[in-house]
Amino acid sequence: MAKSVTGNRAKSTKKAVRSKRAALSVSKSASKSGPKPKAIAKSAAKTSKPAQKPVELHYWPTGNGRKILIFCLESGVPYEIHPVNINKGDQFKPAFLKISPNNRMPAIIDPQGPGGKPISVFESGAILQYLGRKFGKFYPQEERARTEVDEWLFWQVGGLGPMAGQAHHFRGYAQEVLKEPIERIEYGMTRYTNEVSRLYGVLDRRLKSRKFVAADEYTIADMAIWPWIVPWQRQGQNLDDYPSLKAWFARIEARAAVQKSGDIGRAIMEAARVEEERLSEAEKLRRGKQLFMQGGKRQSK
Ligand SMILES: N[C@@H](CCC(=O)N[C@@H](CS)C(=O)NCC(=O)O)C(=O)O
Known about the structure:
Distance between the termini: 22 Å
Order of helices and strands: EHHEHEHEEHHHHHHH
Number of domains: 2
CATH architecture of the largest domain: 3-Layer(aba) Sandwich
Largest sheet: 5 strands, mixed
CATH superfamily of the largest domain: Glutaredoxin
Oligomer: single chain
Number of strands: 5
CATH topology of the largest domain: Glutaredoxin
Radius of gyration: 22 Å
Strand content: 5-15%
Bound molecules: glutathione
């Protein structure tokens, strides 16, 4: 697999230094009146958890990949990017299929999963829920709020994502890569563009009197939905038709972590583009057809 890139390391190192300093100042002042410094150090050692090792993020800069990168950047969870170049076919490699049997990214490996043992997770919704639960961030614990977040998370993974994906297929790839005649794709184009319009309408109504999609706070539901609105033009939509959605979109887009996720994605894409430029036209076409099985390729049994 390709070389990994580490994120959030500097931040966590600074944090560790800060907490070490804080620990030192506690033992200094406690030595005057309270228990002996040694005793404090012992009890701290008993309760302190081992530092979180970086979560392996098997990622490519697409809407589904970006959700998880946004979570890591927002929460400060240490992560390490393992690029899965889906244009090249990395998603079919046996090592990747072991952690993501559906040959799709994203996937993660948390080296310190339940019981301190590694765990792998595939499907972006399941990954967000896992990380939200484990790190106690962007996924409220109160049942009513959590259920709301789940509703909108599933709305994205089961509705907006697949429907917008089909709109991208018929409006873009089918014409540009597969060179399908318009008569063969018109029905699909119309159907999925209209369905995405309907879903944008649902989201716009939901956001009419809300700052965030669920639970009155910024959650994994916003992180899952936002990247799928980014390519609104490719989906045949106009954000001006959905004012509440447009305002929410701008609010999330302005967040530093969201901006940074875009920078990281663009840098990876640029490196891949330079590499791809050197390929023959035939190889470029083969790769284009392999993606999403658009050329009808079947996985061997
Ligand atoms: N339901 C999956 C969808 C993942 C998915 O479709 N990933 C795409 C990129 S956005 C992929 O890996 N495509 C590779 C391929 O189709 O061969 C999730 O939410 O994680």
